[in-house]
Amino acid sequence: xxxxxxxxxxxxxxxxxxxxxxxxxxxxxxxxxxxxxxxxxxxxxxxxxxxxxxxxxxxxxxxxxxxxxxxxxxxxxxxxxxxxxxxxxxxxxxxxxxxxxxxxxxxxxxxxxxxxxxxxxxxxxxxxxxxxxxxxxxxxxxxxxxxxxxxxxxxxxxxxxxxxxxxxxxxxxxxxxxxxxxxxxxxxxxxxxxxxxxxxxxxxxxxxxxxxxxxxxxxxxxxxxxxxxxxxxxxxxxxxxxxxxxxxxxxxxxxxxxxxxxxxxxxxxxxxxxxxxxxxxxxxxxxxxxxxxxxxxxxxxxxxxxxxxxxxxxxxxxxxxxxxxxxxxxxxxxxxxxxxxxxxxxxxxxxxxxxxxxxxxxxxxxxxxxxxxxxxxxxxxxxxxxxxxxxxxxxxxxxxxxxxxxxxxxxxxxxxxxxxxxxxxxxxxxxxxxxxxxxxxxxxxxxxxxxxxxxxxx
DNA sequence: GACGCAATAT
DNA sequence: TATATTGCGT
Length: 458
Hints:
Strand 7 and strand 8 form a beta hairpin. The strands form five sheets. Strands 2-1-3-4-5 form a five-stranded parallel beta sheet, with helices on both faces. Strands 6-13-14 form a three-stranded antiparallel beta sheet, with no helix packed on it. It has 16 helices and 14 strands. It is of the alpha/beta class. The N terminus is likely disordered. It is elongated and about 85 Å long. Helices cover 40% and strands 10% of the residues. The longest helix has 28 residues. Pfam families: Myb_DNA-binding, Response_reg. One of its GO terms (cellular component) is nucleus. InterPro entries: ARR-like, CheY-like_superfamily, Homeodomain-like_sf, Myb_dom, Myb_dom_plants, SANT/Myb, Sig_transdc_resp-reg_receiver. One of its GO terms (molecular function) is DNA binding.
């Protein structure tokens, strides 16, 4: 942030006409004359003003009545504390926004103060327009806490808890101190006044995580390792070991993934009802249907569901465009021998195989129009994980990490640990025709399924 | 408190 | 549409 930007901050732009009734501002200024003028100015605009001429006095006020101070306006050159020390001390003591006002218009000083935690830097002489809407900063702080739930967004360096100051403006019994998620929405709905203010302010919103194929593969890998009993958000998160990724992200994704599996399962049941003998999973329209795993046909009991879940843990969440894909080559095995479809971008006319990925136009595995793969791992098999390991043609090529989509469509990326390499690699000369391999596998699975069905009947 | 899931919000 | 959040039951 440049000095120009800092100084051009217009806190009035969204809330003209509102009044800072009930906002208690602590003014710290060593020059009594200046203190009187500024205090008077603030009182005219409706602030409740408390004053201090020395840092120690200010500290005392904050210690005694910290919960009643909503905003701190301080000079930097105080007799008992230097310019940055006052900011550090106040920042530690109070979660209220700190505005610095000083005759020093040196850029390094301004930036230094902002770095040390000042919310705004005003160059003396302070005029009416500078102070009349300063109270809105209290709402900015409040908003940061309410919306992000992360106190670390503030410059104060305090904990999240510290930053949930107990504001009394408009609603003295405001529950803004609540930090749990459940409280957030309720709180915003219940405090109408605050809600209005908050709506009107421009808030830094939490960026949305984009589940790229790369990230989803890590997710799948974690599921595979953990198995059905261990595949819970917390464990998955630990296993994924992706910086910046949160349990909520994983929970949400896991929920969606399970829904996908369930949909597939339900679809399969329907298929079975409609066609009592699904002797082939080959789609007459030219491709294989999504139900390539015989385990998927088993339903009903919880244990069976769990089996299904277990056996399909490694399946991508893609919707396997029935009949859209060109050939059976779009169904592949992972190294557990479970058939999984690849993330395949077929052509511009085709559906996205994983519509839940906004970036799926950058899918990792690319087929040419004749259905051949760009690369293979081992005999007729293409390993998603291999692609994962090698860094693939994702939108964030060259970077490794989850992608977050902000309001401005800006993507923030974090570094990703390199996934484990595959244990085995085989000579490319041994690559067999992938379609043949897949067909053989499918036939084997169909046979297995029919035998299971037969056993069930007995 | 973690979890799963449905509903709802963004 | 994808993801985040919430509420509620387990």
